[in-house]
Structures are given as structure tokens and as C-alpha cells.
Amino acid sequence: MLDLVTIPCLKDNYAYLVHDPETGETAVVDVPEAAPIMAELARRDWRLSDIWITHHHGDHIDGIPELRAATGALVTGAAADAQRLPPLDLALPDEGALTLGRHAVETFPVPGHTVGHIAYSIPAAKLAFTGDSLMSAGCGRLFEGTALQMHTALQRLARLHPDTLVCSGHEYTASNIRFALTLEPSNTRLISRSERVATLRAKGEPTLPVALSEELATNPFLRTHSAEIRANLDLGTAPDATVFAEIRARKDRF
Ligand code: ZN
Ligand code: FE
For the whole model, what pTM was predicted? Predict the structure, then answer.
């Protein structure tokens, strides 16, 4: 078993701690800022061993120099993006493999938001760290890649075990669900999720992580097959990638 801690950072970012009680190894996924992560480590008396980077944006890496200096943790990220990441101790190939204690960690490209974006999956623990690729009820904006790249990346994440907990980079769930409801207003799972999310946010609590099965049932970017979404977009028999691109374009204008 691994312990997972969700840490709010900056305005609406999340960092995640993954801790292996057996060996004491602890990784953090993304470092928007160092202070809240160091406070959580101190509170739990955990020693940080690893820093895993999903992508190069400042709101995911700006705290790394300070956190690394304070902890000596090894920094891991995509070799393909090394020129715009903090110095890497471990530069991952496209299909990467590492460990946290005895747990195998798989990494793979999820381009779209940025071209060098990667995800980290720990299959035995059913955890996936998706950064700004697959997000709670949404997906990241296409700053560098194409809709087809993002669609393909999300399809790969969608094939993980449905009980996988999706840990993504931002608290955008409420607004993502407002958009999703414009496309699929009859989706009962989406309606009930909307109510649960509103309750959580009213209490100031994170809506993440979220089970992949819940995403598959409610995230429009994973639901290009939905007849209701297709009808609302006037894309009855279009290829999934076309439906995906139209959903992304509409979300940009939402
Ligand atoms: Zn980003
Ligand atoms: Fe971000």
C-alpha cells in the first residue's frame, strides 16, 4: 500500500505526495511552490526522496530548486523536455520505468497541453498522475500540441484500470462540470457529480483525486462516443477525434 496526500498550492494547483511506508521513500508529483510541501513532509515526518515532474510550466516546477536544496530529493522528468526543466537527476525516455519502494512506476508521453508532458502510473497502487493532460472532468488547454495528440493521450489513460485514482494538477472541477453539462445535460452521473462537487467546494475541500471510472462516466473529453454530446455538436457520425477537437474548441470559448 502507498499513502497519497493531496496538497493545495498557489491559487488552484495541486501537488501530490506518494509515500511507501515499507521503505520510507516519498515522491512528490509537481512542485508549484515548496513551502506547503515542506510543511506536509514535516507534519508527517516523511523524508522526500523523489521529485517527479509532469511538464515544464512554472506552476508545476517553480518550487523545485528550493525543495531540492532543502531535501536532496532526486529530480525526475522527461528527457525530451530536459532543456526547459530544472536539472534532472533522472531523465526519462518516452516509455519510462522507475520504482517507489517495491512499486513499479510507469511513465509515458501525454502530449497536447505541452509536447513534452508525461504521466506517471503506479498500476499496483492504482494511481495515475496526469498533470494538465487528463484533468478532473476536463483536460488541459492545447498550448503546444494538437487535439489529436491530446485525444490519443487521453485514450491511453482511459485504458488504465477503472478504479485508478486520477491525480491531476488543478482544482478546475466545478467549472469543467458546468461546461460538461452544456454538452450532456441528461447524463445522470454528471448531474450527481455536480452536486457532490458543489458540496465539497462549499466546504473548501479538494475534488481530487477522482476515480477513472467516474471520469469515464462524466468527462466529455472521454465521452466522444456519447450520442447526446454528438447530437448537441451536430456531429452525429463524425470520427471521435473530430468530436474531441470540437469539444476542446468550445471549452476554449466557454
Ligand atoms: Zn500546465
Ligand atoms: Fe498547470
Answer: 0.98
Predicted local distance difference test score (pLDDT) of residue 118 = 98
Count of domains forming the chain: 1
Which of 60, 103, 117, 151 is flagged as catalytic? 60
DSSP 3-state assignment of 4?
strand
Which ligand has the minimum distance to the alpha carbon of residue 170?
Answer: 2
**Domain ranges, residue 132:** 3-253
Q: Among this protein's residues, is 55 annotated catalytic? A: yes
Give percent helix, percent strand, percent coil of the chain, each to the nearest 5.
Answer: 40, 25, 35
State the CATH number of the domain containing residue 213: 3.60.15.10
59 annotated active-site? yes
- How confident is the prediction for the chain on average, in pLDDT? 98
Q: What is the DSSP secondary-structure string of 159-207?
A: TS-TTPEEEESB--HHHHHHHHHHH-TT-HHHHHHHHHHHHHHHTT---
Give residue 11 CA to ligand 2 midpoint distance, Å: 11
Per the residue annotation, which of 19, 55, 103, 151 is the catalytic one?
Answer: 55
